[in-house]
Automatic annotation (TrEMBL):
Name by which UniProt lists this protein: (P)ppGpp synthetase
Pathway: Purine metabolism; ppGpp biosynthesis; ppGpp from GTP: step 1/2
Domain RelA/SpoT: 71-194
Species per Swiss-Prot/TrEMBL record: Vagococcus silagei
Record GO biological process: guanosine tetraphosphate biosynthetic process
Superkingdom of the organism of origin: Bacteria
InterPro entries (UniProt xref): GTP_Pyrophosphokinase, NT_sf, RelA_SpoT
Length: 227
């Protein structure tokens, strides 16, 4: 759990929060952190189990169906800032109701067909509820951004209670992740809107998408030779 930054203190001061309120907020975040980190652990384990089975020669038998899993609980500072943008106060109830990306998992797959195969398997599990799917692979963002964003809900069993907790799962391929990471870094630096550079960035997304499809076709040919 991270320690609140000066910037967070400033945001709270702007809202005329007293020091004891700040302590209350930190305490509340500490409890939320346990809930959200636990929900991340549950989903991450489910993904690792699917990956382990798929690596077995008897199933898909391809290593690295899931190339990498990254996780994070949204920092207190980011939560407060996001609520601020929506003109909302901080409380656990409001966070649970209004924010669906406090628990975040990014799963990076090798190939695009793996994305849907893993999601279908996860969604079929009896304790997993899919609340929302935003498919920016079928419908890329104007920036060129591609990824599958899914909001899941799972029950987590604690010492004396069971809580249903939301987790945002972003699924993308290695190629999509390469693009998103670099574009994110560049867009940060791009101070004013530059239509030419934006268009060129968007074109790189198309190039990467073509490259990725070609790799997939080559993989299919090789698999067909083995069978
Ligand atoms: P948020 O308030 O940002 O959560 O908006 P939203 O709920 O509409 O979420 P959206 O589906 O747009 O996804 C937000 C997340 O997707 C961001 O935190 C980024 O990780 C990623 N993302 C969305 N658009 C882009 C983009 O154009 N470039 C990059 N690099 N990442 C993006
Ligand atoms: Mg979001």
């Amino acid at each position: 759990m991270e320690i609140p930054t000066e910037e967070l203190v400033k945001v709270l001061e702007k809202r005329n929060k007293q020091p004891d309120t700040l302590l209350q907020i930190i305490d509340e975040y500490g409890r939320m952190f346990i809930y959200y980190q636990s929900a991340i652990d549950e989903i991450e384990t489910k993904l690792k189990i699917i990956d382990r089975e798929l690596s077995n020669p008897g199933t898909i038998g391809r290593k690295n169906v899931i190339h990498q899993i990254q996780t994070r609980v949204k920092s207190l500072e980011s939560i407060v800032k996001k609520l601020e943008r929506k003109d909302l106060q901080f409380s656990r109830e409001i966070v649970e109701k209004e924010l669906s990306d406090v628990a975040g998992i990014r799963m990076i797959c090798s190939y695009i067909d793996d994305i849907y195969a893993v999601l279908d398997s996860l969604a079929a599990q009896s304790d997993v509820t899919v609340l929302e799917i935003k498919d920016y692979i079928k419908n890329p963002k104007p920036s060129g951004y591609r990824s599958l964003h899914v909001i899941l809900e799972i029950p987590v069993f604690f010492f004396k209670e069971t809580k249903r907790i939301k987790v945002e799962l972003q699924i993308r391929t290695i190629a999509m992740d390469f693009w998103a990471s670099l574009e994110h870094g560049l867009r940060y630096k791009l101070e004013t809107d530059d239509p030419d550079l934006s268009r060129r960035l968007e074109q790189t997304a198309t190039t990467i998408s073509n490259l990725e499809n070609e790799m997939l076709m080559i993989r299919s040919k090789i698999e067909a030779q083995i069978e």
